[in-house]
């Protein structure tokens, strides 16, 4: 078993200090694999005078060249034949462009061990059947987005009695029917089985607001949960802060914030970040987070705002070892949380403009050649 396999089977989810050396070995092994099997990735590293053997000590991870997520929207970068990729997933799309990421068996097994441990910490697995309302896309053969696969996967945490989807596929496109969802919620609220929500916080909030405007306030069955993931996307201007969201959930559904769970992740960085009881995203052993200065791209100390660089050796099929997101974030010391987890936690505060993303991607794009409209 390689270092990545041992890392993703490590039992202490947030023991970063205890896994630093193992993480370094896993990153070096992954980098060596990508370097040998992906000509384009090797060209990017060589252009930056970097090679895998330069990963000698843990601090060297910060020197590893990153790939901007925007690069994957313009190029398919695979490090093994497509027939070896068991799963292919896409991002939700930016301007009609999608990142396409492949996963091999080893990467999927790593992810399975990660999900079992992370979800178990939040006690989301249960033998008790639940009804589900998914505030996301109903699966369709034409839909390969990771967010759809993730939302469906969350309905497998318990036996599923029914699944109602907010976004239905019809006539070649998805559309939301919140009236139908509101009716389903009222029906499930009368059941003796718990009701679980999963999906975009935007549509979840819009449904709560719709019920509230109609004067409909419910008491959901005991052990009901609200699970959130995917961000506010195109509704970022209508986003509300967490406390306003929690207050609405308590008012409309009788659900306390202790039963609200939020996830963070990206198809280009398929690590499951699950919030703690204080609703903070602590960094698990499966990844490391570096906040970089938007101008110099140098690492910043905890507490400073910058671009979010995510690192994980989970997958070999696609060179997503180190990626730069279009998120602006802050990495806080774990002691600031108060939940008892020592691992630093990531706060996402917004997104950078397209011009900033283009600047990050420019060098790699020149090496790979223009495709489509470029970046």
Describe this structure as you would to a colleague.
Helices cover 32% and strands 23% of the residues. It has 375 residues and is an alpha/beta fold. The strands form three sheets. The chain has a seven-stranded mixed β-sheet with strand order 6-5-4-7-8-9-10, with helices on both faces. Strands 1, 11, 12, 13, 14 and 15 form a six-stranded mixed β-sheet that branches. A two-stranded antiparallel ribbon has the order 2-3. Helix 6 links the parallel strand 4 (130-137) and strand 5 (160-170). It has helices at 3-7, 16-37, 39-47, 69-74, 105-121, 146-154, 178-189, 201-213, 242-253, 354-368; strands at residues 67-68, 87-90, 100-103, 130-137, 160-170, 173-176, 195-199, 225-228, 260-266, 269-274, 281-282, 288-292, 305-311, 322-332, 345-351. The chain contains ten helices and 15 strands.
Which residue ranges are poorly predicted, with pLDDT under 50 across at least 5 consecutive positions?
356-365, 370-375
Classify the helix fraction into a percent range. Answer: 25-40%
Spatial ordering of strands, largest sheet: 6-5-4-7-8-9-10
> What is the ordering of alpha helices and beta strands?
HHHEHEEHEHEEHEHEHEEEEEEEH
Q: What is the SS-derived class?
A: alpha/beta
- The first-to-last residue Cα distance is 39 Å
What share of the residues does DSSP label as strand, in percent? 15-25%
- Largest sheet composition: 7 strands, mixed
Number of strands: 15
């Amino acid at each position: 078993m390689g270092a990545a396999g041992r890392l993703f089977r490590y039992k202490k989810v947030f023991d970063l200090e205890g896994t630093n050396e193992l993480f370094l070995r896993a990153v070096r092994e992954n980098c060596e694999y990508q370097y040998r099997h992906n000509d384009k990735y090797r060209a990017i590293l060589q252009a930056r005078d970097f090679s895998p053997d330069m990963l000698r000590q843990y601090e060297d991870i910060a020197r590893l060249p990153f790939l901007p997520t925007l690069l994957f929207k313009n190029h398919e970068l695979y490090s093994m034949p497509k027939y070896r990729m068991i799963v292919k997933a896409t991002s939700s799309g930016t301007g009609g462009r999608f990142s396409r990421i492949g996963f091999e068996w080893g990467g999927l097994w790593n992810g399975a061990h990660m999900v079992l441990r992370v979800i178990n910490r939040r006690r989301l697995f249960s033998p008790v059947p639940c009804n589900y309302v998914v505030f996301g896309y109903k699966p369709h053969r034409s839909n390969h987005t990771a967010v759809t696969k993730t939302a469906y996967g969350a309905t497998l945490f318990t036996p599923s009695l029914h699944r109602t989807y907010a976004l239905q596929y019809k006539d070649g496109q998805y559309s939301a029917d919140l009236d139908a969802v509101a009716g389903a919620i009222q029906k499930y609220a009368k059941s003796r089985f718990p009701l679980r929500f999963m999906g975009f916080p935007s549509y979840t909030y819009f449904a709560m607001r719709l019920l509230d405007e109609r004067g409909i306030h419910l008491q959901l069955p005991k052990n009901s949960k609200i699970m959130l993931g995917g961000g506010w996307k195109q509704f970022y201007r209508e986003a509300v802060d967490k406390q306003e969201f929690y207050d609405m959930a308590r008012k409309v559904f009788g659900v306390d914030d202790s039963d609200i769970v939020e996830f963070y992740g990206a198809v280009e960085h398929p690590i499951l970040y699950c919030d703690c009881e204080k609703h903070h995203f602590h960094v698990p052993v499966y990844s490391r987070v570096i906040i970089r200065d938007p101008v110099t791209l140098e690492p910043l100390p905890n507490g400073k705002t910058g671009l979010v660089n995510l690192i994980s050796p989970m997958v070999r099929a696609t060179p997503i070892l180190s990626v730069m997101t279009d998120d602006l974030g802050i990495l806080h010391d774990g002691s600031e949380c108060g939940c008892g987890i020592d691992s630093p936690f990531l706060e996402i505060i917004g997104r950078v403009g397209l011009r900033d993303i283009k600047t990050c991607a420019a060098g790699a794009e020149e090496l790979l050649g223009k495709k489509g409209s470029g970046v």
